[in-house]
Amino acid sequence: MIVCNLWRFQTRSRADRNLLLMMFLALTSCIADPISYSMKGLPGLLPKILVYATSSWLFAANMLASFFWVRFLSFHLNGGIPRRSRIVLDSVVAFGLVLLVINLFVPIVFFIDENNLYSRSYLYVVYLMIDYLLVLYSLVTYFKARANGGFLKFFPIWVYIVPILIGGVVQSLYYGISVIPTSIAVSIAGVLASLQNEMIYHDQLTGLFNRSYLHYMLEKCMVRPKIKISGIMIDLNGFKHINDEFGHAMGDDALVMSARLLKSAVGNAGSVIRYAGDEFIILLNTQDDEAIEKCITKIRNLFDDFNKNASKPYELSVSVGSHKFDMKMESVDTFINIADARMYEDKKAFYASHARMDRRKR
Fold first, then answer.
1. What is the model's pLDDT at position 254?
2. Is the pLDDT of residue 170 over 80?
3. Does the predicted model carry a pTM greater than 0.70?
4. Which of 73, 148, 282, 339 is 20 to 30 A away from residue 184, measured at CA?
5. Model confidence over 288-317: pLDDT tens digits?
6. Sorting pLDDT into bands at 50, 70 and 90, what band is 99?
7. For residues 362 and 351, what is the distance between their CA atoms, to the nearest angstrom?
8. pLDDT, tens digit, for every residue of 56-86?
9. CA 242 from chain center: how many Å?
10. C-beta separation of 239 from 278 below 8 A
11. How far is 73 from 155, CA to CA, in rounded Å?
């Protein structure tokens, strides 16, 4: 899995980096586990050191795998982790690591007797609690993203959760059986398969969802008419000038920057889609006028801030048109066409105002 996903090291995605760390932890745990098993009961200092080292690593790796899973899911679904949540998560994991360091001197988590045999100690349960609390936090993260983004957030969380829960229960109930490292490996395989399926819905340049995703989601809406969504059609102003003036590489850079700004503006309230060329569509999980207008205002403000602060040779601005999807009265094409027509009305107004400004300057 690691070899086939080394390309993820080259991406700037924090989600990918956390996923790779999970893979590394699963790999080292699957190596450490049989070493620990084979060394138990053997006489001598070296076997005892190996049992201490591998057992400590297994406790730490299982906890860290859950920690990086939470981070992966937060970055994948929401693009980040709230500062307060990040502090709490870091503190919990740091507490677990400190206990393992203390355990090297005082057997509070596990101990190795004179026959070099391993036994759990009274604070063993702390790691079960941490692991399950982290899994519970990932569930909260997922369902909050679903609540805000609706069914637009479709990552199948069960492919990770179910093997981990089964492995944790089996290992807790049957002393001496170790299945958590392999359960984590199975879970990661499920996550990778899901991500592979998602790739058909992603635009390679910007990392946004693509047109296939748009039609997939809108067709799903048609069979679930109680769902309320709105669309915001967006087109970059003067994109042809950027390509002509600075080259296509800089044009691609402008598209990537625009995608980041749009994702930041939308957050977990919906999905950003690259529709075609320099056109984007935002699907919002709401038909509230105030929420739609707030999103549009945030988009314009972020693009204005970019122009003031970014050290790029080009400036970015957008034309915007929005429309609420009436699934009982409209087809998918009608929905897109109305949003597109309103966006072009905004674009005409933009160029008309700039033409007047140019005449005044003359």
1. 94
2. yes
3. no
4. 148
5. 999 999 999 999 999 999 999 888 999 999
6. very high
7. 17
8. 999 999 899 989 999 988 887 777 788 899 9
9. 31
10. yes
11. 9
Percent of the chain with pLDDT over 90: 37
Determine how many CB atoms are found less than 10 A away from the CB of residue 118. 18
- For residue 105, which amino acid is it? F
Q: According to the 3-state scheme, what is the secondary structure of the chain?
A: CCHHHHHHHHCCCHHHHHHHHHHHHHHHHHHHHHHHHHHCCCCCHHHHHHHHHHHHHHHHHHHHHHHHHHHHHHHHHHCCCCHHHHHHHHHHHHHHHHHHHHHCCCCCCEEECCCCCEEECCCHHHHHHHHHHHHHHHHHHHHHHHHHHHHHCCCCCHHHHHHHHHHHHHHHHCCCCCCHHHHHHHHHHHHHHHHHHHHHHECCCCCCECHHHHHHHHHHHHCCCCCCCEEEEEEECCHHHHHHHHCHHHHHHHHHHHHHHHHHHHCCCEEEEEEECCEEEEEECCCCHHHHHHHHHHHHHHHHHHHHHCCCCCCCCEEEEEEECCCCCCCHHHHHHHHHHHHHHHHHHHHHHHHHHHHHHC
At 237 the pLDDT is 92
Q: Tokens 């602060």 label which residue?
A: 309
Average pLDDT over residues 228-252: 91
Cα 78 versus chain centre, distance: 6
Separation in Å, CA 262 to CA 151, 236, 320 = 19, 12, 12
Output the pLDDT for position 331: 85
Taking CA atoms, 301 is separated from 153, 160, 249, in Å, by 26, 38, 25
Q: Distance between CA 104 and CA 112 in Å, rounded?
A: 10
**Which phi and psi angles does 119 have, rounded to 5°?**
-145, 145
Contact 55, 111 (CB under 8 A): no
**Rounded-to-integer distance, Cα 86 and Cα 201, Å:** 29
